[in-house]
Each structure stands twice: as C-alpha cells, then as structure tokens.
Amino acid sequence: xxxxxxxxxxxxxxxxSLRLSCAASGRTFSSNAMGWFRQxxxxxxxxxxxxxxxxxxxxxxxxxxRFTISRDNAKNTIYLQMNSLKPEDTGVYYCAARGTYYYTHxxxxxxxxxxxxxxxTVSS
Length: 124
Fold this sequence. Notes:
Blueprint: E1 3-7, E2 10-13, E3 18-25, E4 34-39, E5 46-51, E6 57-59, E7 67-72, E8 77-82, E9 91-97, E10 113-114, E11 118-123
Parallel strand pairs: 2-11
Antiparallel strand pairs: 1-3, 3-8, 4-5, 4-9, 5-6, 7-8, 9-10, 9-11
C-alpha cells in the first residue's frame, strides 16, 4: 500500500520559517514527479511547488524566492523549506506524487497519490 506521510507543519509568526517533509512508502518515486499543494479555507487546492525526477523545480509565483522544494531519492522523501512566511501562506499543505510521469504538472488531478495533509498557520 502506497503512503505519503507529511510532517513539519505548525503555527509560526509572519517572517518565520518551517520545513515540511513527505516520506513515501510502498513504492519508490525516484522516477516520478512530486509536489506540494496547499488549500486555504474556501479556496481550491493549488500547486505550491513541484520537482521532476531529475530535480527540475517550479513554483507558484506567490512563493518564488521564499520556498524551496527538494528531494532525497535515497530516502524516498521530498521537502519544502518555507522562509519569510506570510499570513496568506496559511492552509493545509499536501504532498503528492505522479504515478507514471517524471515531469511536473500544475493540476491536482495529474497526481495519483496524496498525503493526509499538514496544517500550516502563519499569524500576523
């Protein structure tokens, strides 16, 4: 059974930092794109950052220069380093993986596996 388990969320003041981790089990994703999505209350789930199997990254415009996605294929894990956090970064952050493709995609429907989500709250 494939599982993606996120950790590292929490409450932080504006300007602070958090590091999210997503550990995968049940299969390896070294040849697949993975990403982080977030969903704020009343809003649609949106792509925050994604990474190809080869390490090429892309980011939402709102987080460029502040967030960094990375992966450790030996650990079957991806990370999201979030710096200079803003209240508008608040939401549930989900880890996701594509089942077949190595390249990233902006749409949640393109990802086949999902974690349970971790709450990130940024206070002003």
